[in-house]
Write a structure and sequence with these properties.
The structure is a single chain. By secondary structure, the chain is α/β, with parallel strands linked by helices. It has 3 domains: about 200 residues, FAD/NAD(P)-binding domain; about 130 residues, FAD/NAD(P)-binding domain, CATH 3.50.50.60; about 90 residues, no CATH class. It is built from 8 helices and 27 strands.
């Protein structure tokens, strides 16, 4: 059985950044296990720009961004196994995997980084009535077909859901000559970044109907149209608001699900809000020596943030492999509480004595907030009161906590992050 200091599961943006960071920190034996035929993950099919502004200080396409990290992996002589499926991870960090060259094999790791990414929510999770005709795709599948396989899914398109991939595919399909008739969104706000709504819909006169959903799919062999309707505050369609749109293609952009089947089988504690692992300030899960980062941990807006987070996970995994960190049980850290207006926080706990000089806590809000404040409370004492003009659930927020301020509280029991509306006490 081969042994490695750090094994990274997943060769997408999170896995690449984690592996590079672990190697640069000094881990000699670093291995990436990737189930696809190439490194880079979802970035390989993202030919639009907008990547890299934070990390590389320039605007890149997704594939260019991935290439930068793949070059670093090759330069640092980091080993990778492609077309490799991980079957199981044991609590003593033995990984069972399989591929065509090696068959089924096992690897012993000193530390593991989970970077499996996420998958799109399929039609089966939506409970839409109708037959199962051809012409229904997730937005990511359509993106791969157009950008990598050179196939056009159809010519008349309706998109359900306004996630970023769906918005980007509305523009992409339009540029390829298709007619995108409407984007319907169940929620009263867009699920994607504001800039994507402007650049991908508004600039091409594609209508976005908020608080709408598909209530029926027409056609047997091939989709011929859909019925959409307005929904009430509970998400139930309102009778009399139905509209019919003829189309030969329906793209679904209705949410992303972190790929945590391996995590659950390992016994990692899962946050029910994010569907990702509960982690501490080191991005270590409830299983000692197993770290998580990227979209397997929580769904991110920008790949740059994925890379920043993954770099920290890789560095901390290398520290663990070298026994440089005295493990503190995740339940022993100070809990980071999602207060009013906040859905979740990452990390969930912070052990002040072993954190870096500062730590970034990322979170999402529960609703649209205008002219409101982000408050941070250490126990009952407020240490941050920062005004934000607008906050929406589709865009991640963050606060930076300084070790010096946290250390001033000798018996710190809780760290609370909350949203305060202007005028509220």
């Amino acid at each position: 059985m081969n042994s490695y200091d750090v094994v990274v599961i997943g060769g997408g943006p999170a896995g690449l950044a984690a592996a590079v960071s672990a190697r640069e920190y000094g881990a000699l034996g670093v291995l990436i296990l990737e189930r696809d035929r190439e490194l880079g993950g979802i970035l390989n099919q993202c030919i639009h720009n907008g990547f890299g502004l934070h990390i590389f200080k320039e605007e890149l396409t997704g594939s260019e961004y991935a290439k930068r990290y793949i070059h670093k992996v090759n330069e640092l002589q980091i080993e990778s196994k492609l077309n490799t499926m991980v079957l199981e991870i044991s609590r003593d960090k033995v990984i069972t995997a399989t591929n065509r060259q090696d068959g089924t094999f096992q690897i012993q790791a000193k530390a593991i980084v989970l970077a499996m990414g996420c998958r799109e929510r399929p039609r089966g999770a939506l409970n839409i009535p109708g037959y199962r005709p051809a012409g229904i795709f997730t937005a990511g599948t359509a993106q791969r077909l157009v950008n990598m396989e050179n196939y056009m899914p159809g010519k008349e398109v309706v998109i359900l859901g306004s996630g970023d991939i769906g918005l980007i595919m509305a523009r992409r399909m339009t540029l390829e000559g298709a007619k995108v008739k409407v984007v319907a969104e169940l929620l009263p706000y867009s699920g994607g970044l504001k800039r994507n709504v402007v650049q991908c819909l508004n600039d091409y006169n594609i209508p976005l109907k908020l608080s709408h959903t598909v209530t029926d799919i027409h056609g047997r062999e091939r989709i011929t149209g859909v019925t959409i309707a307005k929904v009430d505050c509970t998400g139930k369609p309102i009778q009399g608001t139905e509209e019919y749109y003829s189309c030969d293609t329906l793209l679904l952009s209705v949410g992303l699900i972190p790929e945590n089947e391996l995590s659950r089988e390992l016994g990692v504690e899962i946050n029910p809000v994010t569907n990702g692992p509960v982690v501490d300030e080191q991005l270590e899960t409830s299983v000692s020596g197993v770290f998580a980062c990227g979209n397997v941990l929580h769904v991110h807006d920008l790949v740059d943030y994925v890379s920043e987070e993954a770099a920290a996970a890789g560095r901390n995994a290398a520290k663990f492999a070298f026994n440089l960190v005295k493990k503190v049980q995740i339940t022993s850290g100070t809990p980071v509480i999602a207060g009013s207006g906040v859905r979740y926080t990452v990390p969930s706990t912070i052990s002040v004595h072993q954190m870096d000089e500062s730590i970034t806590v990322r979170f999402r809000v529960t609703d649209i907030f205008r002219d409101s404040f982000i408050n941070v409370l250490l126990d009952d004492k407020q240490i941050m009161h920062r005004k934000r003009r607008i906050m929406v659930p589709s865009e991640m927020e963050e606060v930076k906590l300084e070790k010096s301020k946290l250390s001033a509280f000798r018996d710190l029991k809780s760290i609370t992050i909350q949203v305060q509306k202007e005028g509220d006490e």
